[in-house]
Structure formats: C-alpha cells, structure tokens
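Notebook entry, cofactor series.
This is the third protein in the set we're modelling with a bound small molecule. For this one the ligand is zinc ion. I'm keeping the input format identical across the series so the outputs can be compared line by line later. Sequence and SMILES below, as received.
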Amino acid sequence: MQATAAVLRTPDGPYALETVTLRDLRADEVLVRIVGVGMCHTDVLPRTPAFIAPPPIISGHEGAGIVEEVGADVTEVAVGDHVVLSFDSCGHCANCHSGQPAYCETFLVRNLFGRELDGSSTAVDADGNAVGARWFGQSSFATYAISTARNTVVVDKSLPLELLGPLGCGIQTGAGSILVALDVQAGSSVSIFGAGAVGLSAVMAAKVAGATTIIAVDVHQARLDLALELGATHAMLGSAPNLSEQIMEISAGGVQYAFDTTGVPSVILTAIASMKMTGKCGLVGVQLGDLQLDGSALLGKTLLGILEGGADPQTFIPRMISLWQQGRFPFDRLIEQFPLDQINEAEQSSLSGKTIKPVLRP
Ligand SMILES: [Zn+2]
Ligand SMILES: [Zn+2]
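Returned structure with ligand:
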C-alpha cells in the first residue's frame, strides 16, 4: 500500500511530503485512511538531538479516519468504520488489565520509539529504506496509517470526523487529567498552568466536573481570554508578581488541585505552592528538567505524573464526544485546519502560540 506522508528527515529540517510504502497488515492491525490529524507538542520530540525516535520518521498521533482494511484477527473494528486513533498499549500487562492502558508497562517502546518492538519499520521510502512509522502506534501525518485494534476507537458516522483526531491525545490528556487522574470534585478549586490545547481542555473538563474556582495561567492574553470563555473563573498572566500568593488569596488559602502543562520547573514549583495541604498536583510535561523540591514543599500534598490523562481511550473518547454533543465540551473551538502540505506552517503557527490545535487534512 502506497501513502503520501510528511517525513521528517533531520531534527532541524522541514517535513517533506514523500511517497512511502506500508507493509501488509498483521493479524491484529487496521489500515486507516486519514481524514484529519491533530498536531501535538509531543510530535516535536523527534526534533530533539539523540531522541529515542530519530528521523527519518513519520510522526502524527492524533489521527481520525475511515477503516480501509482489517487484519485476520480483528473483530472490534470493521471496514468502513469511522475511527479515532489513540496511543498504543499491550492489553495484557497488569496495568492494561486493570483498565489503565496509559500506564502500560510497554508504553514508552510502543509509543515513543517510532519503530516496531523488534526495531523494524512498517514503512519504507522510495529508495526502499526504512522510515519510522509506528509513532504512538499510528504515524498519522499521512494519507494512510497502520494502527492496531487496541488503539483504534470506533465513533458514530454522523460526527465531524475531521475534527475528532485530537481527542486521541492532547484533548484526552487535558480532560482525562481532570476527570480521571486528579478526579476533580464538584465545588472544588483548580489552578491550570498553560492554556494551550491540553490546558484549555482541562479548563473545559474542570467546568464539567463542577469545579467552582478555575484559575487559568498563561503568558498569552488571547489564550487567557479564551480560557475565560471556556469556563475559567479567573485568568492570570504567568508574569504576575507573587502568583502563588494571589492564587491562594483567590481560593481562600490554596487550591485543592493544580495541573501543570508546561513542564517548566519554576512553574511546577508555583503550582505546588499554590495548593492547600491535601492538594493534588498533576504534571504532564514530558521534560521536567531539574525539578528541585524543597523538603517541605510537598508536606500534605500529592504530586502525580500523568500520561494521557490516565484515561482508557475506548471509554474516555466516547465520554468526551457525549459532552461535546451536549455543548459542554466545545473542543472544536481550539482547532484550526491546514492542508497536510502546509504542515511546516502549521507547526510554526502552533509553536508561536497563534494556533492552539492545528488539524492537518491529507
Ligand atoms: Zn500493557
Ligand atoms: Zn500527544
């Protein structure tokens, strides 16, 4: 099967559209024609020097599309189904068995290596050379992607499929962190650091959860304005003096939950300091740098590193869709669409803070 894919050849180079050849499906796999694919900050990781998934690679891990073919053993997904692709998991480790595939014991190798577990590749370029094409079990910056039944979630055909891809990672990460991992309670207070796609999804989810004080913090005023429209009760610039003291004042002694999407050590310290004792702080930043905690900073508090919101995509993606249908989770307001051949412009627009969630249309 031939596909057109955006291939990253060097860490600092542009993506270039190339024709690649995907190998035949294995028994548990699914071939999906991609209709829309979100761009997530994790997609820039192969640009990091010496990263575990080096170029050449096809990234993209928020694919949505239509099933073209299924492997011999696939029963959960059928040809013609509309699907959202999410992260991959094994299905048989202890954490997968207990409904926590986001903490699958093979999460890193399945999602962040860009290759098969044995190091081989599912795709070759025009010269027959291997290209990484297993990014988060999909590599969906392409017209076609190979996923597995486990990371393929069937959705109703009446839904706007081109918009649904980001539910597979970034939006799931923000909403799942609030509704699943931190389990934010009605009537509580939450501070959310970073109002990008993950943080704004967290703001919407905190409102869904019934939090009554929702404080958004960001460095872009336009994003804070959107956070207020989406459910934040307070918005604060990250440059504000005495930020943690101001948050403690707003929340009468400290918030019950804090959620950091920035991964910046100084911001995480502010997030922890802004909580009252018994507070829970969730972190989703991939690179935490050298986070140095004073011994007393965590007294009576919980710090939780979260992957994919702690959610199971097979149940959580339908929950987000139901909330969207009710008008309570308007994630589509975060999205700006680009043709796939404008992937470099989309990446720049995202990195500059102009576009919150680019969705590429092959
Ligand atoms: Zn597992
Ligand atoms: Zn992601």
